[in-house]
Design goal:
Elements: H1 4-12, E1 35-39, H2 54-64, E2 71-72, E3 78-85, E4 88-95, H3 103-113, E5 120-126, E6 134-138, H4 146-155, E7 161-166, H5 176-180, H6 188-207, H7 209-217
Parallel strand pairs: 1-4, 1-5, 5-7
Antiparallel strand pairs: 2-3, 3-4, 6-7
Organism: Corynebacterium minutissimum
Enzyme class: hydrolase
Active site: 52 (proton acceptor)
Amino acid sequence: MPSIRDFFARLFGNSDTPSPQPVAGLDPAALDAEWLIVGLGNPGAKYAATRHNVGYMAVDDLLAEGGDVLEPVTGHKLSAAPVDVDGTQVLAVRSHTYMNLSGDPIAPLAARLGVPAERIIVIHDELDLPAGSVRIKKGGNENGHNGLKSLTERLGTRDYLRVRVGIGRPPKGGSIPDWVLAPVDASPAFDSSIATAAEAARLIVAEGMPKAQNEIHSRGK
């Protein structure tokens, strides 16, 4: 059976460098959305199965239910897919930049579409949660997460919504960069956390954040 790293290598190709800005793809002028669901991560096969890329994985899971596929957006360093969530038009998005520049393509897209921060859902890895847990919050500090720092800077606010996927912290004395860039611990529990993160994003859109929090947080770790 192929490993999770092999699976993501096939999915993303063999390049370990960020994808170049696409010259063709979805026409941004034709896109319309009330919400953005943004999965954070680093592009390239080298990073595809790492802890830092759980946001990418959750967006893939979100799209898999309806068979939707991400496509490059012309003139923007990102890929997107329109998704209908209970009659609400949503755009699922992944940046083509490295994590620390995540806000560079996301903020201009949100501005073009007129999507305010309170309707931007960001799915990301969280060191301060136990591995496998999923929590929802609005705003707050970035806690050293470079993807969130970039989004806050470019959006000009911290008031976007967050689906936090716990990855835990490294053993005492361990390197945080090495930890977040190491492969995930593939298991049914890990798969469940990714599915829960995707479901959390859908619930926020469909039911609102308080109801989504009650549903997701009631499941425990």
